[in-house]
Amino acid sequence: MLIYVTGKSGSGKSAFSKQLASVLNYKYIDIDLFGHKIYESKEVMEKLHTLFGDEIYENGIFNRKKLGQIVFSEKNSNRVQEFNKFTWDKMKELLEKEITENCILDYIFLPITELWLKDAIKILVKTKDENLRINTLIKRDNITKEYALLRDKSGIE
After folding, report:
1. Which letter does DSSP use for residue 82 in this model?
2. If you placed Cys at 102, which of 26, 88, 149, 154 could pair as Cys (CB 3.0 to 4.6 Å)?
3. Once rounded to an integer, what is the mean pLDDT over residues 54-66?
4. What does the alpha-carbon distance between residue 31 and residue 116 come to, in Å, rounded to a whole number?
5. Distance linking the first and last C-alpha atoms of the chain
6. Among the ranges given (10-14, 23-27, 57-61, 115-119), the one the predictor scored with the smallest mean pLDDT
7. What DSSP character marks residue 140?
8. CA-CA distance, 107 to 26, in Å (whole number)?
């Protein structure tokens, strides 16, 4: 059985998912980590440079936060939509090798992926205190409040 856990960033979905995976003896998969892993690919980096040019580099080094600022502020632009499709396709290639029958998948964007359409138990983690959630993001990811709010605004409801 697959179990999908989703919720806004900082809501506690990863802590919940890890604990549930431990109790059920299921494999835990943090899909965000696959998103980070694809940046190791030369093909992905070339595509990002084609889409975003030097905007995503700082002192000649790729900077995910700079990419994030663009993606979060230009959510509906053509280049961001192309970026999302391209990177999701690359993530799926990696995920297909990892997903087994007894898995818990943890990902903020699961409801907008085709994975969500598969037969599985779906769990939404929601935090009552939005300020606590934003402060968790700031501390956990070492980001500013402005960046946390921008990232949060670009997410799904």
Report:
1. H
2. 26
3. 91
4. 13
5. 26
6. 115-119
7. H
8. 16
Tokens of 83: 């970026």
Structure tokens at 69: 């600022």
3-class state of residue 118 by DSSP: coil
Residues 7/124, Cβ–Cβ less than 8 Å: yes
Cβ contact 137:148 at 8 Å: yes
Torsion 31-32-37-39 (CA) sign: positive
Give the pairing type, strands 103-106 and 61-62: unpaired
Residue 151 banded pLDDT, cuts 50, 70, 90: confident
Among the listed residues 10, 30, 12, 35, the one whose alpha carbon sits nearest the alpha carbon of residue 152 = 10
Residue with tokens 């856990």: 5
**Tokens 């990232």 — which residue?**
151
pTM of the model: 0.78
